[in-house]
From TrEMBL:
Its cofactor is NAD(+). It comes from Chryseosolibacter histidini. PANTHER family: UDP-GLUCURONIC ACID DECARBOXYLASE 1, UDP-GLUCURONIC ACID DECARBOXYLASE-RELATED. Residues 7-303 form the NAD(P)-binding domain. This is UDP-glucuronate decarboxylase. It is found in: Golgi apparatus, Golgi stack membrane. The keyword Transport does not apply. The lineage of its organism: Bacteria, Pseudomonadati, Bacteroidota, Cytophagia, Cytophagales. Keywords: Decarboxylase, Glycoprotein, Golgi apparatus, Lyase, Membrane, NAD, Signal-anchor, Transmembrane, Transmembrane helix. GO terms for cellular component: cytoplasm.
């Protein structure tokens, strides 16, 4: 019998590439679709020899064509780090809105089930802690993060509309800060920022007074939660993340210990609208999916540090993403 086919948009990115690995291991044919705006073919180069893997270089904000059957679509294409979406705001808005529309249309004609990657950013700078799925959020639509947050909120709205009006089988995952190998070292997110600084012998830059919190999930745990959600019959949003909350100042100290850097922790101004606290309530994921994270921060950080150490020196000193220029208009 022919294998079932899965389309993974953003397949050359951090999370998308791990999803490609997982679906190939599960025995699916995988199509990764990506325009490489923040992704990197090195994340999937080990897959090009696989008979069940294909790569389509395409911008999903333009009409998406895939010949043949599709069983599942996972829409992960979108810039994801604040630095990225500040540099490419229009592309961020387009991929969350037009891109999602195109993929929902594709899901409809293929009769495929689609899972969209939403984010804890739909809660904005949250007034409810920890964040439950029933919280509507506190988002500034015209602030610097608005281009990402509102695109993701629109993404959830149009996904629910396709579920309700076109009876498309939809799933929505709200992803909380996730880390692991294949994150881009220069994407500005806090973990690659701190580890990159330690590896280059620079001081670690904590923004604000470092009292803001995040809760970091290791990528394998996240991928497992996403897989379970896709296979479930639950169509409302589900938080997937690790509830182990830490202040950014304490996190910097953990990275100092991990990397044994002799550099200092220094303080820089807090960016506008930076959420003060973030921690997922994962009651739903536990009860509906039987899922909870298994990898502790100390284990996950060790693996991730080894990955960053193994990168070529030029990557360590690359300040920007090589593909941005080509897309900024
Ligand atoms: P990433 O930047 O590594 O991956 C995103 C991928 O999407 C890249 O390969 C990029 O080239 C591709 N892409 C962007 N716009 C595209 C377009 N128009 N057409 C085709 N491809 C396009 O980021 P990531 O961390 O892997 O994030 C993946 C998804 O998960 C995003 O939707 C993001 O919003 C969501 N998410 C991630 C996190 C996290 O902690 N990593 C948290 C919440 C949500
Ligand atoms: N941050 C920091 N130093 C850095 C990069 C980020 O202190 O060099 C802080 C940032 O202000 C935020 C937290 O770390 O409070 C997480 O930032 P990130 O960009 O990783 O993701 P966010 O959760 O804000 O989207």
């Amino acid at each position: 019998m022919a294998k079932e086919r899965v389309l993974i948009t953003g397949g050359a990115g951090f999370l998308g590439s791990h999803l490609c690995d997982r679906f190939l291991r599960e025995g699916y044919q995988v199509i990764a679709m990506d325009n490489l705006i923040t992704g990197d073919l090195r994340n999937i180069e080990h897959l090009f020899k696989e008979a069940d893997f294909e790569f389509y270089h395409h911008d999903v904000s333009s009409f998406v064509h895939v010949p043949g059957n599709l069983k599942y679509i996972l829409h992960f294409a979108s810039p994801a780090s604040p630095i990225d979406y500040l540099k490419i705001p229009i592309q961020t808005l387009k991929v969350g809105s037009l891109g999602t529309h195109n993929l929902l249309g594709l899901a409809r004609v293929k009769k495929a089930r689609i899972l969209v990657a939403s984010t804890s950013e739909v809660y904005g700078d949250p007034m409810v802690h920890p964040q439950t799925e029933s919280y509507y959020g506190n988002v500034n639509p015209i602030g610097p993060r608005g281009v990402y947050d509102e695109a993701k909120r629109f993404q959830e709205a149009i996904t629910m509309a396709y579920h309700t009006y076109h009876k498309v089988e939809t799933r929505i995952v709200r992803i909380f800060n996730t880390y692991g190998p294949r994150m881009r070292l220069n994407d500005g997110r806090v973990l690659p920022a701190f580890i990159g600084q330690a590896l280059r012998g620079e001081d670690l830059t904590v923004f604000g007074d470092g009292s803001q919190t995040r809760s970091f999930c290791y990528v394998d745990d996240l991928v497992d939660g996403i897989f379970r959600l896709l296979m479930s019959d639950y169509h409302l949003p589900v938080n997937i993340g690790n509830p182990d909350e830490i202040t950014i100042a304490d996190f910097a100290e953990e990275i100092v210990k991990l990397t044994r850097t002799t550099q200092k922790v220094i303080y820089k101004p807090l960016p506008q609208d930076d959420p003060k606290q973030r921690k997922p309530d994962i009651t739903k994921a536990r009860s509906i999916l039987g899922w909870e994270p298994k990898v502790s921060r100390s284990e996950g950080l060790k693996i991730t540090y080894e990955y960053f150490k193994s990168l070529p020196t030029e990557v360590l000193y690359q300040r920007d993403h090589k593909n941005f220029d080509r897309y900024i208009r």
